[in-house]
Amino acid sequence: MTVSGQHDFKQVALEDGDDVSNEKVLNEGFPSREPSKTLKRWQAATYALMYAAMGLNAAITGPTLLMMADNVGVNEQEISMIFVTRGVMWAVGSLSAGRVFEVIRRRQHLVLVLVLFLTVLLDVSIPFITSYWLLLTVQGGIGFIMSHLDVGGNILVFQVWPDNANMYLQLLQFFWGAGASVMPFLVAAVLLTLPPRLHLIGAYGSLSLLLLASCAVPLFVPSPSEHLDAASETANVAPPSRRERFLRIIVITATSVYLLTYVGAEGSFGSWLFAYATEAAGFPKAEAAYSVSAFWCALTFGRIFSVPIAARVSHKRVLMADTAGVFIAIFLLLGAEIVGTIPQPLIWISAFIMGFSMASMFGTGEQLCISS
Fold first, then answer.
1. 164: Cα separation from own chain's centroid
2. Are 162 and 174 contacting, i.e. CB atoms less than 8 angstroms apart?
3. DSSP symbol at 163
4. What is the rounded distance in angstroms from the CA atom of residue 290 to the CA atom of residue 312?
5. In whole angstroms, what is the distance from residue 37 CA to residue 291 CA?
6. Helix (H, G, I), strand (E, B) or coil at 25
7. pTM value?
8. How far apart are CA 356 and CA 155, in angstroms?
9. N or C end of the chain, less CB within 10 A?
10. CA–CA dist 95, 147 (Å, integer)
11. 112-124, pLDDT tens digit by residue?
């Protein structure tokens, strides 16, 4: 079934009216030329779907955090180790993901399928885990596995659009935010319709079904590396000098620290907002889930607006404005804590400002690295 599905796309790739010699056809049946626009669109849709699935998986932690704590019998401080474990394992997985996609060049989409399938297996097990250390292990495994999807998506975008990757990287981030925006609504629906003993099962069961449905898509879309293999044989690129290598290491290191800090802040705020809204502001659980969705929705729509803004405003000014918005949201919450009363509308306002301000920080950081 997979072979026939890929064969269909190979036929689509040849329907642009170009004369292609049989001598230029690769082993997989592709001509050694640029793939068609139709195939690229399908590849873009595939990677967008993968990032939406990653957003779904990331956004479920916040609304289910307290439920997981009750399930394993720990308090809020102890359950917060989930974020540390996932963050550390995500960083470790990111180091190995690039090598994985380099070694498995002609089967890169199979890696995406395997990542999603393993994530489904771990997500399904979470409602039935009653051991704190086992829960940390599973959450760390999810972070390690999903990092391959994150890094792989960026690698594949650069393979498909080496000269115009920025717009498509923003597209991936948009769909990540779209998936993250939808998940709190699904959790809220579970909280409102199912009895309490089934809340965790319903939430992670819904997530697992969505991830499982997206597993099969990459099997029917050819990997871009099938085109790159032939082109790389004829490429003649001069190796960088020692000074260029040194400067690249500095830029990549600084960008990595910045992106690591941003991802940690984004994930922490999106996950802790639910607990903060319920414990500090007295939100009902369903309404707290909606406030988390408001944060992710603001982040998603902010990424839409960031595209035309980035074309007219310098990256440095965009980054300064984003940082100012983040501090405004933080100071609003801190000021309410100092006063001693936290109005519920303040949670919504802070969530919106934080999400909208953080929207373009990741893409701007990547673009600054690329332009450097």
1. 20
2. no
3. T
4. 33
5. 40
6. strand
7. 0.74
8. 26
9. N
10. 9
11. 999 999 999 999 9
